[in-house]
């Protein structure tokens, strides 16, 4: 009898794991397709000649941030709107601050105990960095600064309790 109970429990765990993996991949499929579509859109437009990385930013609007080489061979960043109805913005990487500079500016402006991530994004017509951090008092914080010169845009904090 014990043997059948153990077999039943193992079968349930395997079934639940399979269903979870299937559900996760189904939910992520449109985003995964979006990465490839953004990559192809920017290459087809000729604004970038090669793509090194594609990431996703969801703020007021959603963007795929595509990094690669422009037609002059310089590192460039393209913000491709997820809905693809708005125009794509392309800037040279050298036109803005680096992720390390964005992190440094944030660390000097807020009481961050740990920087969790630095992401490129865009709100309205402003290219920006979103710096996600954890404070000494265990609050999740977000600090937004412009890509061009690191000027403060906004920040907010959430309690992790």
Automatic annotation (TrEMBL):
This is DUF5590 domain-containing protein. Gene3D superfamilies: 3.10.450.40. Residues 37-81 form the Cell wall elongation regulator TseB-like domain. It holds the Pfam family TseB. InterPro entries: Cystatin_sf (IPR046350), TseB-like_dom (IPR041401). It comes from Alkalicoccobacillus plakortidis.
């Amino acid at each position: 009898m014990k043997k059948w109970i153990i077999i039943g429990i193992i079968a349930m765990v395997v079934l639940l794991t399979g269903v979870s993996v299937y559900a996760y991949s189904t939910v992520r499929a449109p985003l995964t397709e979006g990465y490839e579509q953004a990559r192809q859109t920017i290459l087809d437009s000729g604004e970038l000649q090669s793509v090194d990385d594609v990431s996703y930013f969801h703020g007021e609007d959603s963007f795929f941030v595509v990094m690669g080489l422009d037609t002059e061979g310089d590192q460039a960043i393209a913000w491709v709107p997820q809905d693809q109805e708005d125009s794509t913005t392309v800037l040279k990487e050298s036109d803005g601050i680096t992720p390390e500079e964005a992190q440094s500016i944030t660390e000097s402006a807020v009481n961050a105990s740990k920087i969790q991530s630095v992401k490129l994004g865009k709100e309205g017509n402003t290219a920006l960095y979103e710096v996600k951090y954890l404070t000494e008092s265990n609050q999740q914080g977000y600090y937004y600064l412009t890509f061009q010169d690191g000027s403060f845009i906004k920040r907010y904090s959430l309690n992790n309790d």
